[in-house]
Each structure stands twice: as C-alpha cells, then as structure tokens.
Design brief:
single chain, 135 residues, alpha+beta, four-stranded mixed sheet, 4 helices, 4 strands, 12% strand, globular
Length: 135
C-alpha cells in the first residue's frame, strides 16, 4: 500500500540500502526496540506510514485502542528519529482523520481551522509497515 509505493519510488530514484520493518521484525509499540533499530541501522531518512488499522467496524468498536496505539507508534518513531539524528522524516496520515465534509486544500495545506469539527469519515486501510532508508 502506501509503504510499498514509497519503496518502489525510492528504488526508481536509485536509493540504496532501503530497509523495511514489518511487525514480525520490529514492534513499533516498544520504544526501546524502535530506538535500537534506528541506532543499529544508522537511519538517516525515515518514512512513517505505519498504523494500527482495521475496518469500519473495528474503528467504531475500539476507537480508544486505535488512537492510543497509533499515538505510541508515532511518538516512538518520531522520537527515535530525533535522538538518532535522522536528517529527514516523512510522517504520513490518513484522510480518515478529518471529518467527512472538511474543506479540501488545493495545495496540500488545509485552511486554518479546517478538519476540526464534524463527524469523522469511516476508517480505511492504511499501510502497515515503515519503510526506512539509509544512504
């Protein structure tokens, strides 16, 4: 999905040493493991496209669990990137976090106050892995 598309694009741009870490390789909920992964692999660019995902039913049934785990994943990766000296970090979010009828920005920047009110749209299935790049 998104992570795979990022990897394909980086390969097309002739990036070397592209590392990916799936759930079986790295538990993004484990702060020490995430920091160790960044330190050991000497990451200098990180593309965060990982999230706990589910369908509409799971998102509606367990909203607190989804937001908690996603916040922990994001905090762990962003902090590990910071303390290990990552030069570039791309953090991706889903359009599902915005209300269904939120104003859409034409140039990728939402107008002030956009997306802060109204019901959220049903969940989608974002990427489940974090492509990490070393050069």
């Amino acid at each position: 999905m998104v992570g795979s598309a990022i990897v394909r694009r980086l390969q097309a741009l002739d990036y070397a040493n592209i590392l990916t870490a799936g759930r079986d390789t790295l538990n993004l909920l484990d702060q020490a493991a995430v920091q160790a992964y960044f330190r050991v692999n000497k990451i200098d660019q990180a593309y965060l496209a990982a999230a706990k995902v589910g369908g509409i039913h799971a998102n509606n049934a367990y909203p607190a669990e989804f937001i908690y785990e996603n916040l922990v994943i994001e905090a762990n990766v962003v902090h590990a990137a910071h303390v290990s000296g990552v030069q570039k970090l791309l953090f991706l979010g889903s359009s599902c976090i915005y209300p269904k009828h939120a104003a859409q920005a034409a140039r990728g920047v939402a107008p002030a106050g956009a997306g802060l009110g109204g019901p959220h749209r049903p969940g989608r299935r974002p990427a489940r892995r974090v492509p990490l790049v070393c050069r």
